[in-house]
# Entry
Amino acid sequence: MNGQAKFAEHDFEGAITDLTILEQSGSSGGRATDLLEASKKYIDLWKAEQAIRAKEEALTGDQALPLVKLSTNQGEIEILLFEDEAPVAVRSFVQLIEAKYYDGLRFHRVIPSFMAQGGCPNSREGSTKQPGSGGPGYTIKCECYQENARMHFAGSLSMAHAGRDSGGSQFFLTHLPTAHLNAEKGKDEGCHTVFGRVTKGLDIVRALGINDVIKSATVIRKRSHPYVLKREEMTPSLD
# Structure
Protein backbone atom coordinates (compact mmCIF):
# COMPACT_ATOMS: atom_id res chain seq x y z
CA MET A 1 0.00 0.00 0.00
CA ASN A 2 1.57 3.31 -1.06
CA GLY A 3 1.45 6.66 0.70
CA GLN A 4 -1.70 7.89 -1.02
CA ALA A 5 -3.55 4.65 -0.26
CA LYS A 6 -2.51 4.83 3.40
CA PHE A 7 -3.66 8.44 3.53
CA ALA A 8 -7.05 7.40 2.12
CA GLU A 9 -7.42 4.77 4.86
CA HIS A 10 -6.48 7.21 7.66
CA ASP A 11 -3.05 5.64 8.25
CA PHE A 12 -1.38 9.02 8.42
CA GLU A 13 1.78 7.85 10.19
CA GLY A 14 2.35 5.24 7.50
CA ALA A 15 1.59 7.79 4.80
CA ILE A 16 4.19 10.17 6.21
CA THR A 17 6.85 7.46 6.13
CA ASP A 18 6.13 6.47 2.52
CA LEU A 19 5.63 10.01 1.26
CA THR A 20 8.84 11.24 2.87
CA ILE A 21 10.78 8.59 0.96
CA LEU A 22 8.96 9.50 -2.25
CA GLU A 23 9.56 13.21 -1.76
CA GLN A 24 13.26 12.65 -1.17
CA SER A 25 13.48 10.65 -4.39
CA GLY A 26 12.32 13.73 -6.33
CA SER A 27 10.09 11.65 -8.60
CA SER A 28 6.65 12.80 -7.45
CA GLY A 29 6.52 16.19 -9.15
CA GLY A 30 5.47 17.90 -5.93
CA ARG A 31 2.44 15.70 -5.32
CA ALA A 32 4.15 13.90 -2.43
CA THR A 33 4.95 17.21 -0.73
CA ASP A 34 1.31 18.34 -0.71
CA LEU A 35 0.06 14.99 0.56
CA LEU A 36 2.83 14.83 3.14
CA GLU A 37 1.80 18.19 4.59
CA ALA A 38 -1.84 17.10 4.64
CA SER A 39 -0.89 13.87 6.43
CA LYS A 40 0.91 15.82 9.15
CA LYS A 41 -2.17 18.03 9.67
CA TYR A 42 -4.49 15.05 9.81
CA ILE A 43 -2.72 13.18 12.62
CA ASP A 44 -4.26 15.44 15.28
CA LEU A 45 -7.51 15.88 13.34
CA TRP A 46 -7.95 12.11 13.17
CA LYS A 47 -7.31 11.66 16.90
CA ALA A 48 -9.97 14.26 17.64
CA GLU A 49 -12.37 12.65 15.17
CA GLN A 50 -11.88 9.20 16.69
CA ALA A 51 -12.74 10.59 20.13
CA ILE A 52 -15.92 12.15 18.76
CA ARG A 53 -16.88 8.92 17.01
CA ALA A 54 -16.43 6.92 20.20
CA LYS A 55 -18.88 9.23 21.98
CA GLU A 56 -21.33 9.01 19.06
CA GLU A 57 -21.27 5.23 19.09
CA ALA A 58 -22.12 5.24 22.79
CA LEU A 59 -25.33 7.22 22.25
CA THR A 60 -28.54 5.22 22.67
CA GLY A 61 -32.28 5.69 22.45
CA ASP A 62 -33.46 9.08 21.26
CA GLN A 63 -29.94 10.49 21.60
CA ALA A 64 -28.57 8.19 18.89
CA LEU A 65 -27.72 10.07 15.72
CA PRO A 66 -29.91 9.71 12.62
CA LEU A 67 -28.94 6.97 10.17
CA VAL A 68 -29.93 6.88 6.51
CA LYS A 69 -29.41 4.52 3.59
CA LEU A 70 -28.79 5.25 -0.08
CA SER A 71 -29.60 2.28 -2.28
CA THR A 72 -27.70 2.69 -5.55
CA ASN A 73 -27.23 0.53 -8.61
CA GLN A 74 -23.73 -0.22 -7.26
CA GLY A 75 -24.94 -1.25 -3.81
CA GLU A 76 -26.06 0.18 -0.48
CA ILE A 77 -24.46 3.00 1.50
CA GLU A 78 -25.33 3.73 5.13
CA ILE A 79 -24.60 7.19 6.49
CA LEU A 80 -24.61 8.47 10.07
CA LEU A 81 -25.76 12.11 10.21
CA PHE A 82 -24.03 14.74 12.36
CA GLU A 83 -27.12 16.41 13.75
CA ASP A 84 -25.29 17.89 16.73
CA GLU A 85 -22.77 19.81 14.60
CA ALA A 86 -24.81 20.47 11.45
CA PRO A 87 -28.48 20.47 12.49
CA VAL A 88 -29.79 22.54 9.58
CA ALA A 89 -28.09 20.44 6.90
CA VAL A 90 -29.29 17.25 8.60
CA ARG A 91 -32.89 18.42 8.93
CA SER A 92 -32.91 19.44 5.28
CA PHE A 93 -31.41 16.13 4.16
CA VAL A 94 -33.85 14.02 6.20
CA GLN A 95 -36.79 16.16 5.07
CA LEU A 96 -35.82 15.66 1.42
CA ILE A 97 -35.27 11.93 1.88
CA GLU A 98 -38.69 11.49 3.46
CA ALA A 99 -40.23 13.41 0.55
CA LYS A 100 -38.58 10.87 -1.85
CA TYR A 101 -36.67 13.77 -3.39
CA TYR A 102 -33.49 11.78 -3.99
CA ASP A 103 -35.12 8.68 -5.46
CA GLY A 104 -34.04 8.34 -9.10
CA LEU A 105 -31.38 11.06 -8.99
CA ARG A 106 -27.94 10.33 -10.42
CA PHE A 107 -24.38 11.03 -9.42
CA HIS A 108 -23.64 13.66 -12.04
CA ARG A 109 -20.06 14.46 -11.04
CA VAL A 110 -17.41 11.95 -10.03
CA ILE A 111 -13.70 12.66 -9.64
CA PRO A 112 -11.57 9.54 -8.98
CA SER A 113 -9.59 9.63 -5.74
CA PHE A 114 -11.67 12.61 -4.59
CA MET A 115 -15.45 12.35 -4.44
CA ALA A 116 -18.84 11.46 -5.97
CA GLN A 117 -21.48 14.21 -6.14
CA GLY A 118 -25.24 13.83 -6.49
CA GLY A 119 -28.55 15.27 -5.34
CA CYS A 120 -29.33 17.52 -8.30
CA PRO A 121 -32.95 17.22 -9.54
CA ASN A 122 -31.73 17.95 -13.07
CA SER A 123 -29.96 14.59 -13.08
CA ARG A 124 -33.26 12.72 -13.07
CA GLU A 125 -34.00 10.78 -16.24
CA GLY A 126 -36.04 12.92 -18.63
CA SER A 127 -34.85 16.28 -17.30
CA THR A 128 -33.75 18.74 -19.98
CA LYS A 129 -31.86 20.99 -17.56
CA GLN A 130 -28.13 20.89 -16.88
CA PRO A 131 -27.20 18.39 -14.15
CA GLY A 132 -25.40 20.10 -11.32
CA SER A 133 -27.30 23.37 -11.59
CA GLY A 134 -30.48 22.49 -9.70
CA GLY A 135 -31.70 22.43 -6.14
CA PRO A 136 -34.78 22.06 -3.92
CA GLY A 137 -35.99 25.65 -4.30
CA TYR A 138 -34.14 26.98 -1.29
CA THR A 139 -30.61 27.36 0.05
CA ILE A 140 -29.24 27.00 3.57
CA LYS A 141 -26.33 28.58 5.40
CA CYS A 142 -22.97 26.86 5.67
CA GLU A 143 -22.33 25.33 9.08
CA CYS A 144 -18.63 24.71 8.45
CA TYR A 145 -17.50 27.97 10.07
CA GLN A 146 -18.63 26.95 13.55
CA GLU A 147 -16.06 25.97 16.16
CA ASN A 148 -17.43 22.43 16.37
CA ALA A 149 -17.55 21.88 12.59
CA ARG A 150 -16.51 18.40 11.49
CA MET A 151 -13.58 17.81 9.16
CA HIS A 152 -13.43 15.89 5.88
CA PHE A 153 -12.21 12.30 6.10
CA ALA A 154 -12.71 9.30 3.84
CA GLY A 155 -16.45 8.68 3.57
CA SER A 156 -17.55 12.15 4.65
CA LEU A 157 -20.97 13.38 3.55
CA SER A 158 -20.58 17.06 2.69
CA MET A 159 -22.76 19.83 1.34
CA ALA A 160 -22.02 20.87 -2.25
CA HIS A 161 -22.47 24.53 -3.08
CA ALA A 162 -21.63 27.24 -5.59
CA GLY A 163 -20.46 29.71 -2.95
CA ARG A 164 -20.92 30.40 0.73
CA ASP A 165 -24.47 29.80 2.03
CA SER A 166 -25.72 28.44 -1.32
CA GLY A 167 -26.10 24.75 -0.43
CA GLY A 168 -29.39 22.98 -1.06
CA SER A 169 -29.94 19.36 -2.01
CA GLN A 170 -26.62 18.53 -3.65
CA PHE A 171 -24.04 16.61 -1.64
CA PHE A 172 -20.83 14.73 -2.17
CA LEU A 173 -19.20 11.67 -0.61
CA THR A 174 -15.43 11.75 -0.26
CA HIS A 175 -13.03 8.97 -1.26
CA LEU A 176 -10.28 10.24 1.06
CA PRO A 177 -9.56 13.09 3.48
CA THR A 178 -9.81 16.45 1.71
CA ALA A 179 -8.04 19.09 3.76
CA HIS A 180 -8.64 21.95 1.33
CA LEU A 181 -12.40 21.77 2.00
CA ASN A 182 -12.05 22.15 5.77
CA ALA A 183 -12.59 25.44 7.54
CA GLU A 184 -9.46 27.03 8.95
CA LYS A 185 -8.81 30.10 11.05
CA GLY A 186 -9.07 33.18 8.84
CA LYS A 187 -10.71 31.27 5.99
CA ASP A 188 -14.13 32.65 5.08
CA GLU A 189 -14.71 30.96 1.72
CA GLY A 190 -14.23 27.56 0.16
CA CYS A 191 -15.13 25.27 3.04
CA HIS A 192 -18.01 22.80 2.97
CA THR A 193 -20.30 21.56 5.72
CA VAL A 194 -19.62 17.95 6.72
CA PHE A 195 -22.93 16.60 7.98
CA GLY A 196 -22.41 12.85 8.05
CA ARG A 197 -20.09 9.91 7.48
CA VAL A 198 -20.36 6.57 5.72
CA THR A 199 -20.65 3.69 8.20
CA LYS A 200 -21.21 0.96 5.60
CA GLY A 201 -20.42 0.91 1.90
CA LEU A 202 -17.31 3.06 1.50
CA ASP A 203 -16.24 0.60 -1.20
CA ILE A 204 -19.52 1.39 -2.98
CA VAL A 205 -18.84 5.13 -2.71
CA ARG A 206 -15.45 4.64 -4.35
CA ALA A 207 -16.99 2.50 -7.09
CA LEU A 208 -19.64 5.06 -8.08
CA GLY A 209 -19.37 6.50 -11.57
CA ILE A 210 -21.07 9.29 -13.48
CA ASN A 211 -24.78 8.55 -14.00
CA ASP A 212 -24.94 5.85 -11.34
CA VAL A 213 -28.35 6.22 -9.76
CA ILE A 214 -29.81 6.52 -6.27
CA LYS A 215 -32.63 3.99 -6.57
CA SER A 216 -34.00 5.00 -3.17
CA ALA A 217 -33.01 6.93 -0.08
CA THR A 218 -34.51 5.92 3.26
CA VAL A 219 -34.28 6.95 6.90
CA ILE A 220 -33.28 4.01 9.10
CA ARG A 221 -33.61 5.92 12.36
CA LYS A 222 -33.96 9.48 13.59
CA ARG A 223 -34.62 11.36 16.78
CA SER A 224 -38.20 11.96 17.89
CA HIS A 225 -38.48 15.65 16.94
CA PRO A 226 -39.76 16.83 13.51
CA TYR A 227 -37.19 17.16 10.72
CA VAL A 228 -38.56 20.28 9.07
CA LEU A 229 -36.62 23.42 8.22
CA LYS A 230 -37.73 26.63 9.87
CA ARG A 231 -38.56 29.56 7.62
CA GLU A 232 -35.60 31.57 8.89
CA GLU A 233 -33.21 28.71 8.12
CA MET A 234 -33.72 28.75 4.37
CA THR A 235 -33.56 31.30 1.57
CA PRO A 236 -35.84 30.80 -1.47
CA SER A 237 -33.99 30.18 -4.73
CA LEU A 238 -34.98 30.01 -8.39
CA ASP A 239 -34.03 26.33 -8.89
